[in-house]
Amino acid sequence: MARFNTKRLLWAAALVFGLLLYASPYLALLQMRQAASVRDGAALAAWVDFPSLRASVKLGVQQRLVNSRSPGSAEPPSPARAMGAAVASALLGPMVDALITPASLARLLQGVPPTSAALPRPQGSEAAVPPPRVETAMGYEHPQRFVFSIRQAGEDEEPVELVLHRQGLFGWQIAELRLP
Question: In terms of CB atoms within 10 Å, which end of the chain has fewer, N or C?
Answer without folding.
Answer: N
